[in-house]
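Please review the protein record below. Let me know how this chain folds according to its tokens.
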Amino acid sequence: MTLVNHALRAGRTNLSTASPLQTTALVAGGGGALGSAVLEALLGKRRHARVRVLVSRALGTAMAGLETMQVDDFAARPDTGTAPVADVAVVVFDRERYANGRELAFMKPAPEALGTLAGWLHRHGVRTLIVVMPHAPSQLPEALKLGLANLDEHAVAALGFEHVAFVRSAQPPSGERATQWLQRLADGMLAQMRIMVPSTHQPVRAIKVAQFVVELADRLATSPPGTRVAPPELVWQAAQMTDPGPLVQAWLDARELPAFRAAQRRW
């Protein structure tokens, strides 16, 4: 049983976590495959005292450190002036999944409402925002694809967050052309054969993208302020690593990234 499944069981348990940190992380879009992986990774790392997830209806939790926050309408909800809802917020766009029905209770952010959601988060004290694109865009419904294509990232960046990061969908870097003609011939034939690989086998796993997002959430607040875009090649490279932490830190510091070379497929 995963941490998220255990946390969403009815009732209360005596589980306790002692965290030296006092920060709060918030996830919007925790119901999809990628969103639930991000939520579980945040809970598993235990680097935040609290992890909140936005829901559209009441949902009981059973794990210390996990809190649900019900919000029905961001535009209509008044600003209460209370304590910040979170230090860092992660907005995850993903397709719906139907595993046990509880996913329907999670708030699902709409691309066209990102500006409204981001504005509400900023007004409620969030200073670090991470927006995560789907890890398998080829499997998205057409309506969601069109919505993401019109995502107004400039409006979000202009809201005044101290740190904003947009995480693109993972894609392998384009390889350099081989110098040997036999290798070029083999690469060309393999490239044609890639269309025979099912699309479900091509994207990286959601849990690997989630590891990158969690490392970014932990390190972004201590980096210089500004808006960043994690390119597809960086997300893909991080997904090939057991520990993407050094890669994330080097990218945030604008240093040379750790050397990495993907294994080349041969006959």
DSSP finds nine helices and seven strands in the chain. The longest helix spans residues 206-219.
